[in-house]
Amino acid sequence: MSTAAGSQPPTEGAPQTDADHGRARRGPVPMIVYGLVAALVVGWALTASVRSAHSGQDLRANLTLIAPAGAGGGWDTFTRELQAAMRAQKVVNNAQVVNIPGAGGTIGLGKYSTMDGQADTLLTSGTVMVGAIALNDSPVTLEDVRPIARISEEYDVIVVPADSPYQSIDDLIADWTQDPKAFPWTGGSAGGLDHLIVADLALKNDIGPDEVTYIPKSGGAEAIQVLTSGGARAAVSGYNEFADQIEAGRMRGLAIVSPEPVEGIDMPTLVDQGYDVAMTNWRGLLAPAGITDEQFAELEQIVSETVQTPEWKDAMERNKWADVFLVGPELEDFLVEDTAQIEALVEELGL
């Protein structure tokens, strides 16, 4: 599968970053790369944040939430909504958010794996990170941290500009199959959910992975820029990232990538239109390795209280997120199954 370069050259050695958007390349990434890139991205802000929060005593006094992506995307929105809910109900007195963008969240995960025992720092994770780990053969995986909870789930949508000739997904597929390489798509990180959806849709329409042109971006905001500038013909990302554009009439939604129609979203599913592609984008939180069982239990309680607040329930409704809260052994089983499915898809698609 080919990935078209964005407006800036890549700055990393192996995986493609959300900030630089070069071509994704497979292969393990030395840990030194994670450390150097994360340090450049985060710099003094993260160091000061973690040092001020890390007292090792009261986790409800200070908590740092790391969003492993740039500002404005799905992970950032999710993390800041959690922060707002924690603050509003005093679940945590001082909750702060730090962004570490890059490589579908694996830059943030790599940096996080060095924070052994720092119980007052949590990392947002989800489907995109699982896909990026598989795509980049990341030396750091979810087995190197302690997952706390799966919290929410949302679905991607396929959109085109309002002046696009494509009135339906059938129109788009018919044109795409004529000359796949000349039909650029855009969406989130290489190896992330958006990318996998395009790849799976190609597979279901007899388009080889190496024929797909995909321009990876850090999220919906940058994908919109590529789409409106004519750099891509269609985009895939979370519904919430395109909702304003669709409601304003600047974008046309052709399909929602969900198993069934979603209440409150007036858009047919790919499945209902004859294309057997349905994937979910879950998000949750991770704790670092090396913390005590007591600290882990306290963090799980903090998260459980946060998702019960009226502020979080309002965020779920506003963002059209589904409640899929899961902790404990059931979460561990889910992650094993989800990782296996995504790894199998990445292998099948030749990514």
TrEMBL record:
Residues 1-10 have a biased composition (Polar residues). SUPFAM superfamilies: Periplasmic binding protein-like II. CDD domains: PBP2_Bug_TTT (cd07012). Residues 1-25 are annotated as: Disordered. It comes from the Bacteria. Signal peptide: none annotated. Belongs to the UPF0065 (bug) family. This is Putative tricarboxylic transport membrane protein. It comes from Ornithinimicrobium cerasi.
